[in-house]
Write a structure and sequence with these properties.
single chain; 416 residues; alpha/beta; 6-stranded mixed beta sheet; 4-stranded parallel beta sheet; 16 helices; binds ligand F0G
Length: 416
């Protein structure tokens, strides 16, 4: 049986208790499994014949075998060998795990399929989250599929248009908070504490993390049962880096892999409490009161899962880096133009971090590296349009189009 456990004092809670913070010490929870039961379940199962997806790993999820899952076909995302970008950066082997290929366009769907399935299992009727955009889009979609009432709190004016349109069309109650993400999260924590019938589905909810750990499992399976040397991942509220690390460590405990990757977190320079703490060698973070970055998805000053993330980075001998908005937007363009992958700015921060860490000599060019790109570029079309060359407008005349294409000169040379 799976159970919940405090990451600090290790107090245990049953799998069906609705509890977000440890009642004894106030820290956050994680899901643990009875190892023997898991090994036995895996031996009797044909899970490796199931196509790549979150639910291929159903035995590793804290959901009853008889529960009907709420799914939109999440996971099984592309694992792109990036030969041109690798050559450009003089790297031996580089992959991009492109999470924008999930049903609502971000990695959040991995967590939501499990989190919303758990919500239905618990019999709750209403769900809520605070979000910089992608979590709200994903929760709204899965709540619609499950027939649950859904409310999302977002920082007013600071979420990308694609994400806002998703939350609205899926029918969530969208509440814009006059404040930032950290204030929105603080509000939903209080609301879900006060109104116990509303189930909280931010990444503080450990069932979300269980779904997201499948990202780590899939990378192992896409590398034919091997771990890469390094994972580079954008960090905001810090749930995802913790989840990916959990996936790798669980596979290692089951002897499904021999080695573990170095977890490398990347934050936007204006919202980087975890990267700063890692650089300073400190035990705790200093929250950033007014976080700022063009990568609105990771515009977060007080990440709730900071302790899990710092453990993942330190246990794996990884590191953390900050990147400027300029570096993020440049990386977004480079990835699109060398590999044909259009990702949103927050996602491009993993590529920006990679470039910086290679240049600084922190990442060895011989490593096998996987960069996780977390959300689709169409989530934030405004930023992409703003930073690209403007389209040329001409009359619908061949000569004008030839001139715009630079063909006039060629013709003159050929005929001249
Ligand atoms: N990349 C994207 C595209 C995101 O939307 C987020 C988080 C992250 C990276 C960071 O992941 O929080 O697990 O460290 N977005 C959340 C949201 C906060 O509300 O959509 P994290």
């Amino acid at each position: 049986m799976a159970y919940q456990r405090c990451i600090q004092c290790r107090k245990e809670y049953t799998i069906d208790e609705i509890v977000y913070f440890c009642e004894k010490c106030g820290d956050i929870l994680e899901i643990k499994y009875e190892q023997n039961e898991l090994v036995e379940a895996l031996e009797d199962s044909e899970w490796q014949k199931i196509p790549l997806s979150v639910w291929r790993y159903r035995h590793f999820m804290p959901i009853s075998a008889t529960t009907k899952v709420v799914s939109l076909n999440e996971g099984g995302t592309g694992f792109h060998l990036c030969e041109k970008l690798a050559k450009h950066l003089k790297l031996r082997r580089l992959y991009v795990k492109n999470e924008g290929e999930n049903p609502t366009g971000s990695f959040k769907d991995r967590g939501m399929t499990v989190g919303v399935t758990k919500a239905v299992e618990l019999g709750v009727k209403s769900v809520i989250c605070a979000s910089t955009g992608n979590t709200s889009a994903s929760l709204a979609a899965y709540a619609a599929k499950a027939g649950l009432r859904c409310a999302v709190l977002i920082p007013s004016g600071k979420i990308a248009y694609g994400k806002l349109s998703q939350a609205m069309i899926y029918g969530a109650k969208v509440i814009q908070i006059k404040g930032n993400f950290d204030e929105s999260l603080d509000a939903v924590l209080k609301i879900s504490e006060k109104h116990r019938s509303i189930y909280l589905l931010n990444s503080i909810n450990p069932f979300r993390i269980e779904g997201q750990k499948s990202l780590g499992y899939e990378i192992v399976d896409q590398l034919n049962r091997q771990a890469p040397d390094r994972i580079v991942v954008p960090v905001g509220n810090a749930g995802n880096i913790s989840a990916i690390w959990k996936g790798f460590t669980e596979f290692k405990e089951l002897d499904l892999i021999d080695t573990l990757p170095k977890m490398t977190g990347v934050q936007a320079a204006g919202s980087a409490p975890i990267a700063q703490a890692i650089k300073n060698g400190s035990e705790t973070i200093v929250p950033v009161l007014t976080p700022e970055t063009v990568a609105t998805a990771i515009r977060i000053g007080a990440p709730v899962s900071w302790k899990k993330a710092m453990n993942a980075i330190r246990e794996s001998s990884g590191t953390a880096e900050t990147v400027t908005d300029e570096e993020i937007l440049n990386a977004q363009k480079v990835l699109a133009r060398t590999e044909g992958l259009f990702v949103e700015p927050a996602s491009a921060s993993s590529i920006a971090g990679l470039i910086k860490l290679v240049e600084n000599g922190v990442i060895d060019r011989d490593e096998r590296i996987v960069c996780v790109t977390t959300g689709h570029g169409l989530k934030d079309p405004d930023t992409a349009v703003k930073m690209s060359e403007k389209p040329v407008e001409v009359n619908a005349e061949i000569s004008a189009i030839e001139e715009a294409l630079g063909l006039k000169k060629e013709i003159a040379i050929m005929t001249g």
